[in-house]
From TrEMBL:
Catalytic activity: chorismate = isochorismate
UniProt cross-references to Pfam families, sorted A to Z: Chorismate_bind
UniProt family annotation: Belongs to the isochorismate synthase family.
UniProt key word Isomerase: yes
Lineage: Bacteria, Bacillati, Actinomycetota, Actinomycetes, Kitasatosporales
Keyword ATP-binding: no
Transmembrane domains' residue ranges: none
Protein name in UniProt: isochorismate synthase
InterPro entries tied to this protein: ADC_synthase, Chorismate_C, IsoChor_synthase
Swiss-Prot/TrEMBL keywords: Isomerase
Domain Chorismate-utilising enzyme C-terminal residue range list: 114-364
Length: 375
C-alpha cells in the first residue's frame, strides 16, 4: 500500500475553514481562499468558471442523481506531488492554524437503532428475492458529540496515519478517507477502482488469509462485486478504444477491513464526453446505491427517512483541461463544530444476513470513529 507523502502530510496541517484538501496517493491539492461556489450540471462546460481562480475546482456530487453538482473554485490551488520540494509553496501560506484544545469528553449515539436497521435489511433482502431489484445499499449513522470543536486537520492526520493509501478529503463539510476511486482522467485515459464485497481483518496474517479466502469464495460477496464491475464496464465501454481489466478481483487490505477490488483502465475515443459527464454516468455506483439504480432508490426511499446529502456521492477535483479525479464519498463524516455524523453502508442482496450486515457497518464505522474521538 502506498505510504503518505511528506507533501500530503504537510498539506493536512493547513486544512480548515479557508482551505480545501483533496489528496490521492500521487497528488495532493490544497485550495486556498475560495473565490466562489457554483451549482453546475454534469454535462456543463465549467472551464470558464475555473478560470475565475487558477484553473482548478473542487467538485462534490450528492448521492441523489439530478441534484446540482457543487463546484468550489479557490483563488489559488497548490499542487503537492511526492518527491517535490513543497516547502516554498506551503511557506507562502504562513504558519498553519494552531489547533484548539482536544476534546475531553464525547458521546456516541446510533441514529438508526440496530434492531430496526436489521429489520430493514430483512425487508430489502426479501424484495431482492422477489425480483424487485438485484441489490440495495442501506446506510447507518452514528452521531458524535464532544466538548470541543472537532478539528479537520487532526481528524485527517489520524486517518492518514491509519489509511495512507486512501483518498483523503476535507471539503464541503465532509472529512474522510475513501478507499474507492470513482473515476480519474488524464487526457484520454481514465481509471476506476470498483470496490464491493467486504470482510473484516484478522488478528494475524494466517487469519487474514483465511478471511480473504472466505471473501473470494463467498457467493454473496462475489455477486455484489460482479454487479458493480459489470456496471462500470458497460457504462464506459461505449466511449472506449481499449479496456484493461483483470478477470478476477484482487483483495484490497485496509486497516480494518478487506475488500474485493477490480481496477479498470480505459483509453477513451477522441469524441468522449467531458470528465464530469462520464463520472455522472457512473454515479452512484451499485456499491453505494444498488442496482438497478432507480429500483434501489425506491427501496432506499422506502426504508430511510433521511437525506444522505453528499454521503455516497463523489468528491474530488476537475481542471480547465478536463482532467480530474473523484473518489466515492464513503468512510467519511459530516463535521459541524463539536458535532459529527459518521456514515457506513452495506450492500443487501438476496441471501444477506442482517446480523452479518450490521457487523460489516460496525467494522466500517471503526475506520472513522477513532479519528474523531482520539485524545
Amino acid at each position: 500500500m502506498p505510504s503518505l507523502s511528506d507533501a500530503a502530510r504537510a498539506a493536512i496541517q493547513f486544512t480548515g475553514d479557508q482551505h480545501i484538501l483533496f489528496s490521492s496517493p500521487d497528488l495532493s491539492l490544497l485550495g486556498v481562499e475560495q473565490v466562489a461556489e457554483y451549482s453546475v450540471r454534469p454535462g456543463q462546460d465549467v472551464s470558464d468558471l475555473l478560470r475565475d481562480g487558477d484553473g482548478v475546482g473542487f467538485v462534490a456530487f450528492p448521492f441523489r442523481r439530478g441534484e446540482p453538482v457543487r463546484l468550489a473554485v479557490p483563488e489559488r490551488t497548490l499542487r503537492l506531488e511526492p518527491g517535490c520540494d513543497h516547502r516554498m509553496l506551503l511557506d507562502s501560506l504562513g504558519p498553519p492554524p494552531k489547533p484548539d484544545r482536544a476534546a475531553r469528553t464525547y458521546s456516541l449515539r446510533p441514529v438508526e437503532q440496530p434492531e430496526e436497521w436489521c429489520g430493514n435489511v430483512a425487508d430489502v433482502a426479501g424484495a431482492v428475492r422477489r425480483g424487485e431489484l438485484r441489490k440495495a445499499v442501506l446506510a447507518r449513522r452514528v452521531e458524535v458529540v464532544t466538548d470541543a470543536v472537532i478539528q479537520p486537520p487532526q481528524v485527517l492526520g489520524r486517518l492518514a496515519q491509519t489509511f495512507p493509501g486512501a483518498y483523503l478529503f476535507s471539503a464541503f463539510g465532509l472529512v474522510g478517507a475513501s478507499p474507492e476511486l470513482l473515476l480519474s482522467k488524464q487526457g484520454r485515459y481514465v481509471e476506476s477502482k470498483a470496490l464491493a464485497g467486504t470482510v473484516r481483518r484478522g488478528g494475524d496474517e494466517a487469519a487474514d488469509r483465511e478471511l480473504a479466502r472466505w471473501l473470494v469464495e463467498s457467493p454473496k460477496n462475489q455477486q455484489e462485486h460482479r454487479i458493480l464491475r459489470d456496471m462500470v464496464l458497460e457504462t464506459l465501454a461505449p466511449h472506449a478504444l481499449s479496456v484493461q481489466v483483470a478477470k478476477e478481483p484482487q483483495i484490497l487490505k485496509l486497516a480494518n477491513v478487506q475488500h474485493l477490488m477490480t481496477h479498470l483502465t480505459v483509453e477513451l475515443k477522441p469524441d468522449h464526453p467531458p470528465f464530469l459527464e462520464l463520472a455522472d454516468s457512473l454515479h452512484p455506483t451499485p456499491a453505494v446505491c444498488g442496482w438497478p439504480r432507480d429500483a434501489a432508490y425506491e427501496v432506499i426511499d422506502r426504508v430511510e427517512d433521511w437525506d444522505r446529502g453528499l454521503y455516497g456521492g463523489a468528491l474530488g477535483w476537475v481542471d480547465a483541461e478536463d482532467n480530474g479525479c473523484l473518489c466515492v464519498t464513503i468512510r467519511c463524516a459530516e463535521i459541524d463544530g463539536a458535532h459529527a455524523t459518521v456514515f457506513a453502508g452495506s450492500g443487501i442482496v438476496a441471501d444477506s444476513d442482517p446480523a452479518e450486515e450490521l457487523a460489516e457497518t460496525r467494522a466500517k464505522l471503526d475506520a472513522l470513529l477513532p479519528a474523531l474521538i482520539a485524545p
